[in-house]
Amino acid sequence: MSATESPxxxxxxxPLHRGGKIEIRPTVRIRDTAGLxxxxxxxxxxxxxxxxxxxxxxxxxxxxxxxxLVVSDGTAVLGxxxxxxxxxxxxxxxxxxxxxxxxxxxxxxxxxxxxxxxEIIRTVVAIAPAYGGINLEDxxxxxxxxxxxxxxxxxDIPVFHDDQxxxxxxxxxxxxxxxxxxxxxxxxxxAVMSGAGAxxxxxxxxLIDAGIGDIAVADTKGMIHHSRDDLxxxxxxxxxxxxxxxxxxxxVDALAGADVFIGLSSGSVPEEAIASxxxxxxxxxMANPTPEVHPDVANRYAAVVAxxxxxxxxxxxxxxxxxxxxxxxxxxxxxxITEGMKFAAAKALADVVGDEVRPDYVIPSVFDPRVGLEVxxxxxxxxxxxxVARL
Length: 391
Description:
It is built from 16 helices and ten strands. The protein is an alpha/beta fold. It has two domains: 54-157, Malic enzyme, N-terminal domain (Rossmann fold); 164-391, Rossmann fold, CATH 3.40.50. The strands form two sheets. It has a six-stranded mixed β-sheet with strand order 7-6-5-8-9-10, with helices on one face. A four-stranded parallel β-sheet has the order 2-1-3-4, sandwiched between helices. The protein is globular, with a radius of gyration of 22 Å.
């Protein structure tokens, strides 16, 4: 084996990643001294001076208006867990690639070598002036909740934790259409969800706000309910808003007669539990790469089945949401991403499917060219309606 060869080259993922997946390219070319004097000194000094006097001009005369900072500390990467900042870097590069491919948004991946909440917040605040938005990624719960909230309080640009809100937007969109397939609305459904991490809390919260009939959430110790005395602050708040039927015990028990199962954990669900669900049930088994219940098994009992995988119908994938959400937010120079903007994104995604909705098509393909445009326009309109748009 030569010095330049790698033992991983037989795996097609490695050659694709060699040298990284993104690069920075100029938007203008310098071919003579006149161009150099405009792009850099002395011409750049006039632009810098103007921005110093009026900071809003940075949106017009720098990359700020179209650039997002993607931030991770590597503590909750995919299903790999805490693999550190270097291990997280290929994923953050991938995120930046998807921002550009599906939203036309430039993104810069930053992997921080610290798990300290205060240090992460100080670092992001210090470098935030160069960016039009912050996308937090793969930061473990419960720290991710505090980091997002404090950063949004400190900054006047959108701060968005995609593991939470991107997942929630796409899940709500898919469930709106899945309910339509079965002749129901969200308000008719009783859901049981496995997983009370960042994504689970966000999905449950958004579904409640969207009007779901009821949703009960399970963590590793069973169903979350108000009588438990071992809940974190986040789960205590969740208990106060969910599980109106006061279901206790195991998630398997709770699934009996339920209309919807939403899987956001790495556990498994036995076939008999899926079989015990109500007629015309809906199963979203979103653990990746191994769903909580195999789609072939779920399809024996459920009217609609979705996963997080691309090799089965109805892939619930965050890339359907975050590029368009940031595209819309950047286009109107939004100061934050509100709950109304998230729901507008979910509704837009559901509407892309429209009258074509069917059991194997409740959410559009990530390659549907309508997705980014419809989501971004809906988000921009919602930002203006909610008073967080500068344009």
